[in-house]
Amino acid sequence: MVRQGWHSHLTVLLAEWSGMPIVSVNTDFLRQQYLQHKTLMHLLATDMALQGFQRQNGRPPDTLAELVPNWLPRVPQDALAIDGGPLKYKVVHGQYELYSVGTNGIDENGAVTEKQTGFMPIEGDFRLEGFFAN
């Protein structure tokens, strides 16, 4: 029996979008996809705020908290972090590094790997540089 209603239509659309068979789409998969895309959006918004701050001040901020409230409404959270903490950020030799802990939920100090599922690495952290390089 096929379920009727918006949820069945959403399942079909998500299956087509992800390239997965409809029967293999489940709530865990959908939740992971949601968290990955939410993290990507937070990284993009934060990176834009960091670039604006740096242009205005001639340097990157020392912490993400310096972006609030002029550039961001709050410190951006990492949706993939097990502890629900903020995105990872540091300044090294005058350049900022921004990243998420990635799908494994472990902070690997910004290290990335080539193993990927969709647009997120299976292991290692997630950085925008790797996303746009692919």
Structure notes:
The protein has 134 residues and is of the alpha+beta class. Helices cover 37% and strands 10% of the residues. The chain contains 3 helices and 4 strands, in the order ααββββα. Strands 1-2 form a two-stranded antiparallel ribbon. Strand 3 and strand 4 form a beta hairpin. The model has no long low-confidence stretch (mean pLDDT 80).
Write the layout of secondary structure elements.
Elements: H1 6-18, H2 27-57, E1 88-92, E2 95-99, E3 116-117, E4 120-121, H3 128-133
Antiparallel strand pairs: 1-2, 3-4
Spatially, the strands of the biggest sheet line up as: 1-2
Distance between the termini: 41 Å
**How many helices does DSSP assign?**
3
Question: What is the percent of helical residues?
Answer: 25-40%
Number of strands: 4
- Structural class comes to alpha+beta
Top keywords for this entry?
134 residues, alpha+beta, 37% helix, two-stranded antiparallel sheet, elongated, two-stranded antiparallel ribbon, 4 strands
